[in-house]
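Letters spell out the chain; the tokens describe the backbone. To illustrate:

===
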Amino acid sequence: MRYMPDSVMLFAAGFGTRMRPLTETRPKPLIEVAGRPLLDHALDLVDAAGIERIVVNTHYLGEQIAEHLAARPEIAISQETPDILETGGGLRQALPLLGQGPVFTLNTDYAWTGSNPLDTLRAAWDPERMDALLMLVAPENARAHLGKGDFLIGADGALRRGPGAIYCGVQILKTDGLESITESAFSLNLLWDRMLADGRLFGLLHDGLWCDIGRPDGIVAAEQMLVGTND
């Protein structure tokens, strides 16, 4: 089994309810920011990090995503049907496409400045100590995010729940524990809680800015951030 991640799961199956009415006729990953679909911005990070095994999960209006990716036949699509499986169930379904060992997972509804978070995570990954390594951002470096934060970071990078740093939607994760979860549809938070109990969940802070594009106002905030007008 490999110890360093060489595959990535891009989450693109959600209904995008907070982005309505823009998502009434197209899936959220195809909403454009700065003239390009969110999915393409995420793929830019993946391509720049040199990750060749790429899986995209789809559900709502998934045929549009498949058509959009038709020019990239190396990208595998994990279609969730008939029900959406959430992040944990969706990742588990895609494991045959991702291969054994740790994987990157990447949400497709965020924008970034600064270092490529995939490269940063890979450089800090220590499979002897970690079952997951999450990229986080300090609240003052977040844009268009309404939450109070997700984790507190210890001096050694170990995490505990609490208002503080915000999870940025990208991580390295060992997938072994997914098989023991009985639910078909479940959040990866369930797996994180088990890792927290074992002292195996770690995180680090992103060195740039990050924008949550979960609602229409996030599009404007992201575009301002990307051109440097909201620093």
In short: The chain is about 25% helix and 25% strand.
